Each structure stands twice: as structure tokens, then as C-alpha cells.
Amino acid sequence: MTDTSNARPAESEAQAPRQSRLRRLMRFIPLIAPVLLWAVPCWVLLHTGQHWPLPVTLVGTALFALALIGMPLMMMRGHGRRQQDRAAIIGDTLLGTSWILFTWSVLLGVLLRPALTVASVGDSQDRARIVTWAILGITAVLLGWGYAEARRVPRVRRLDVQLPRLGAGLDGIRVALITDTHYGPLDRTRWSARVCETVNTLEADLVCHTGDIADGTAERRRAQAAPLGTVRATRARVYVTGNHEYYSEAQGWVDLMDELGWEPLRNRHLLLERGGDTLVVAGVDDVTAESSGLAGHRAHLAGALNGADPDLPVLLLAHQPKFIDRAAAAGIDLQLSGHTHGGQIWPFHHLVRIDQPALAGLSHHGPRTLLYTSRGTGFWGPPFRVFAPSEITLLVLRSPHPPTSI
């Protein structure tokens, strides 16, 4: 029989250097990413056989170099301590532009150029220039369309969700979900008001906001958030914190939402009763809350359910889908989340899926737990949404035994 008692410490010691090296490499990503995002399109568009006139090549290369320097500088000034909104708008717009340019430079550089060669289209210079114009054309279209998608009032997504433990008296309860409004450098006060008007047309019993209200403090973004006070619900308006609140004095946002008439469900619950049946509506702080250092802020599911009858169905608000592991272990019936933005700008959703168990829509976890992940109502950073439309969600909760009509 082999003694493995000494093998495990040795394995741990071997893994520790690998993990520390990985962490050191991760630190360089903020430096490497901007270079790749701008250098790859610059090379594909200007230096792969197009043979542009020298002034075009020099001016184009200079513009890419300027964007490479300007983007991180503007983002630091915009989102750092200074929080200069104009700088943030420029930096965010450059970030979105670079991501789209990079994506299509890679895709068309890999796919279109060989296809043109196989089809014997022109000479190598012709093919290189066709690829360049195709990349620039697609980028321009996606930027215009993506901006319009990000700035419009989201469409309402409606779906019925059956909860096996939901009592017949609660059948048809209407739950409206908004999330990730991200009020920020671009003033969206009018947009905010129109979103709230749309929510009010849904005549919801319960309206939920699952966090990331804004980028910036409550004092700084108060005007954009103020329309949330006009939202109507027949039973309750409830809110939980998102990770972005913890970048911007989260307690100020909790206090403002309370002032606007929303109930912050900070590791607590309320009871929604109708027709002799009861639904537990619980909420937890975001999973990043504890690391923020704010006293009393942490995701505490046991605290949220403390005192609730374990036989009652539970609707849980948690900002990030990744909380579903804890929710499923506790037998939660339905968790509502946001955070992912559905990827926001394709194909960023592949990176989101590395961190989160769901991207958008309804998914099953464990024997009875459902998760609904919204693509978000607003946008973060780059003012673009590409193949990831925003949404206002209306979930109609259904009982397996609806009341019989007389």
C-alpha cells in the first residue's frame, strides 16, 4: 500500500508557484489587452499587403497609436478618482470601438482573405483592400446599430414560470424585473423616466431591481435614478445591491433606494400573500460585498431566510448568477439575477461564461431551483449593445394547481 500522506503537501507546494505565476501574469492583462485591441486591427487594416499610399499608412498608424495611448488614459481619468464624465465617455467609446474592430479584424482576416484567395478574386493587394473595407464597413454598421440598441428603451420580455411549490392563490402573480441600469457619464435621465413608464404599464404585483443601479455615487447620479421613485407595484418594490454599488459608496445607494420607496432586501425577506397562500421574497447583498470592507455588507442567504417557513416557496434576488450554487443547495425555487448583460458586445459572452453559470434566460439548477438571468436594462461602459439586446422582464409565476374558475 502506497503512503500518500507526504504526496499532498508536495503537490500543494508545486501548485503554489504555478498559481503565483498565474497571478503575476494576470497583472499584465490591463497592459497587454489595449495593445492587442489596437495593434491587431492596425496591422490587418494597414500593413498586410494593401500597399496604401505612404501618407495614408502614416496617418492611419498614428491614429491607432493615439487611440492606444488615449483609451486607457481617458478611462483612468473617467473611472478613477477624478471621475471626469467626458473622459469616461471618450474612453468607453474607444473601448467598444476597439473591441469590435479587433473581433472583425481577426474573423475576416482569418476567414475572408483565404476565401477570396480560393475564389481567385483579384491579386493579393486587391484581396487585402477588400478585407480592409469589409472590416471598416461592418464596424461602422455595428457601432451605429449597437449605439441605437444601447440607448433605446428596452423591449419587454414576457414569460410564464411554473413553480411546483407555488400555491394556487398566488397563480398569476406578476413580477417585473429591471437590473443593471448603470446610470453613468452619459446622462440618461429621460431614458430612465421612459423605462419607469414602461414598467408601470406592466401592472406588476412585485417590481425588482437586482443591482448595478449606477456607476458613480448616489449623490452624483441622483437625477438619473430619481424616476425610480415613480415606479408602481401593487405589493412591493424591492432592490438588492450589485457589484458596482461597492465601487461607489454602496450604503448611499441603499439609502437612496429606501428614500425612493424601494425596500432594500439586504439579507432579509418579506412575505407576499394572496388567496391564502404565501411567497417568500428574499434578497442578498452582492457576493463582492464582504470584500468591500463596508460594515454589515455581505451575501448571507441564511440571514435572508431567517424566520421564513421552509415549506413556503422562495423567490430570491441575487445580483450575480453565480450565487445559484448556494441558492440551489438551500432549495430556493427561483433566483432572479442580472450582471452578465448577455455579453453586451458579441463575442464577449464567451468570456462572461467563464465566470458565470448562465448568460441569459431561464435555466435549471439542482432538483427544483430555477434561475432567470436578465440581459440587463442599461449598459456598462461602451455605449453599444451588439447581438445582446437589453430587456425589461415580466415573469408571470404559475402554480401547478391554478384556482378553478366558477
From TrEMBL:
GO terms for cellular component: membrane. One of its GO terms (biological process) is lipid A biosynthetic process. This is Metallophosphoesterase. The keyword Transmembrane helix applies. The chain crosses the membrane at residues 28-46, 52-75, 87-110, 130-148. Keywords: Hydrolase, Membrane, Metal-binding, Transmembrane, Transmembrane helix. PANTHER family: PHOSPHODIESTERASE YAEI, TRANSMEMBRANE PROTEIN WITH METALLOPHOSPHOESTERASE DOMAIN-RELATED. It comes from the Bacteria. It holds the Pfam family Metallophos. One of its GO terms (molecular function) is metal ion binding. Residues 173-342 form the Calcineurin-like phosphoesterase domain.
